[in-house]
Specification:
Length: 105
Amino acid sequence: MPGYLLDLGATLVCAHAGQAQPTAPEPRVRLSGNPIVVQTTTYAVAGCALTGTPNPPCATAMWIAGATRVKAGGQPVLLQDSQSQCAPTGTPLQVTMTQKRVKGQ
């Protein structure tokens, strides 16, 4: 199913409201001036609500699935509905805001 492409300006959070940011977006492809993000990009999570609890907080997130038809730098781009998994909790990231101009599949 088509979804909006993720770029550096997209807002993502872990299941415990921690803010997630890509560590290395694809610099050669841009949407409205922002670099896009591909499936191999790791996200760093900060501010996870599990901090200070017996359970370890979300620290990073990796992407399990990306676009099937759109690639950048040889890697699938990330879509609003792409699937991810945070480490060490195993919960997914949630996209709360993204650009609304370009869709991919």
